[in-house]
Structure formats: structure tokens, C-alpha cells
Amino acid sequence: MLMNTVNQPKQMVHIQRSISNHWVGDGFPVRTLFSYSDLGQKLSPFLLLDYAGPRDFPPTQARLGVGEHPHRGFETVTIVYSGEVEHRDSSGGGGKIGPGDVQWMTAASGLVHEEFHGSEFARRGGKFEVMQLWVNLPAKDKMAPPAYQAIINNQIPVVTLGNSAGTARVIAGEFAGAKGPARTFTPMQVLDLTLSSNEPFSIPVPENHTTALIVMSGTLLVREANPLRSAEMGVFSLEGQSIEIDGADEVRALLLCGEPIPEPIVGHGPFVMNTQQEIYQAMVDFQAGKMGRLTR
Ligand code: MN
């Protein structure tokens, strides 16, 4: 029993830097910060994180983004920091999200969707900065019906961190007594952190959950580890119940914690399943129109 009362910090075991730099369609200049294709189960239940921008877009009448494409077997979570994203999918989900808003799309059994800059933002131009996270589904839920959660800024609780070190917006999961609005299939926390402190502070996180801290801007001093800077991700040990920080200089960061899903990950492009056979079936089903079509 004594063991449980000791606060043992998690250790930062790995720093990951952006592994690729590419455009998704003509609207999203992304740095892929991690992907299951090289980290495998290490970040489970999280599969992939694309960081789009920050980049200034000039005013345009063009529709910038990516047209109709499918997904099956997981969820896409789009967090807007600056700019606007318009989305439409074949299950009837859709809408426009702006700064502070989050779109939590459950592709599950399959849908097709399109993702574009919001038309008003495109006409105005300006700074565009968006994160897109892919969250895996357990095998038993991969063929669940698609769903769409539009989470707007003012639905997301904001809590103050200890030692006045900053704030956490609780998008998913429970943190410091607040409950995030996102419905998830497995236990996880997704937190949008704004940190600034010359003093050490501690962020409580669950034992045995995958834990990754992604810095978007600023410099974060993780205790007994190298500093994390823009577009760098620290991966922490499963063991331990806190992250110990020595200081933070104007940091914006995303904290991901989740219970690992101990199942095989087999993916191809927009499909992430458990076996090659299921990937083949996803291609066949998409070609046959079983994931639906966008109506014009
Ligand atoms: Mn997509």
C-alpha cells in the first residue's frame, strides 16, 4: 500500500523531432510529429500527429485543402489554434471550426470527407495553425457507426496548474477535477497547455498510460532531460504519476495520455485496422461506395 502513496515521476525516455515535412492537399503544410508507421505501439492509443503551420496564407478565392477521401478504423481529432477548417463527411457530419475549437470525428466503419480552409478565413488570409491527431479504436469498435463531435471553445473547461505555471484546456478526459467534453472509446486525456514559469511545477498524469508532450512553441525544461522546443515531442515512461517541469518559457503544448490498446496495428494510407485482410476489405468497400459519397 505504501508504494501507491509515493509520487514517482515519469521519466522522459525519448525525444522525437518532426519526421517529415509535406503538404496535405494544397491547404495543410504539415510536419508529421509521430506516426505508428515508425513508432508502432509506442504511442498507442495515438496513431499519428500532423502539425500544420504556423504559416501565413495570403487572401485567396481558392478553396485550399483536401477533397473527398476515406477513413476507416480510427478517429481524427482536429484542433484549431489559428485560422478556420471546414469539414463535410458522408455520414452527415460537418461544420466550420475556428480558434479554440475541436472536431472529433469517428471514422470507425468508414466514411469519406473533405477538409478545407474556412471560406471567410481564406478570403481574409492570415495565420493558419492546426493539429490533427489520429486516435486508434479497439478492434471491437473499428466497425462501429461513424460519428461527429463538434466541440466549441467555450465547452472546453480551463483549469489552472499548480504553482501558477499556466493553464490546461481539457479537451478529453478528466484533469484537476474538470471533465473534457469529448466522448472517447478508451480512457485518455487530451490537454491544450499554456505554460510560463520560472519555478518548478508538476503535472499529474496516470500511471501506465502512454504519455507524450508535444511543444508547439517556446522552451520547456523537463527535469533531468534535454529541453523540448518547437515541434518536438517528449515521450515518457509508462511508470510514474507525474511529469516534473523545471521551467517553461512561453510554452504552448499538447499533452496526450492514454491507455494503450494492446492489439496489432496494420495501416495503409487512410485505413488503420488489425490485419492485412481488413485493409484489403477496406479498399474493396471504399471502391464499392460502401463508405458513402459526398453529395454536391
Ligand atoms: Mn481526412
What is this entry, summarized?
The chain is mostly beta strands. The chain contains 4 helices and 23 strands.
Structural overview:
The protein is mainly β and 296 residues long. The chain is 9% helix and 52% strand. It has four helices and 23 strands. It has helices spanning 2-5, 36-39, 119-124, 276-287, and strands spanning 12-17, 20-24, 28-35, 46-57, 65-71, 74-82, 85-89, 94-97, 102-106, 111-117, 126-136, 147-151, 158-160, 166-172, 174-175, 178-179, 188-197, 201-204, 210-222, 232-236, 242-258, 266-268, 271-273. Strands 1, 13, 14, 17, 18, 19, 20 and 21 form an eight-stranded antiparallel β-sheet that branches. It is globular and about 55 Å long. The protein starts with a helix and ends in a 9-residue tail after the last helix. The structure holds manganese (II) ion. The site of manganese (II) ion has 5 residues, from strand 5 and strand 10.
